[in-house]
Amino acid sequence: MTRLSELHIKGRLKGLHGWKYRNNFLTKAFEFKTFMAGIRFVNDIAAIAERLDHHPDIHIRWTTIKLSVQSHDEGGVTSRDVRLVTEIEKFLHRKTG
What we know:
Layout: H1 6-13, E1 20-22, E2 25-31, H2 35-52, E3 57-61, E4 64-69, H3 79-96
Antiparallel strand pairs: 1-2, 2-4, 3-4
């Protein structure tokens, strides 16, 4: 995989609500009403990550879940990362419909 340019990344993020490009990562924080709702979300994201064989960094702080996505072997964002966040957003859209 090849790292994407910042311009390319920002263009791809336009259709992905809430995702930001910071410090060579794609990031987004999700807020939940309860701790367990956040944990269920983490389990759903883990299933997507396993299917794509590409795993985000997950930070859990009570009812806030922060995902950070990067191709560590490339030291930045690649098309694999964009695909993962796109699949996460598709899942959220289906779930909240």
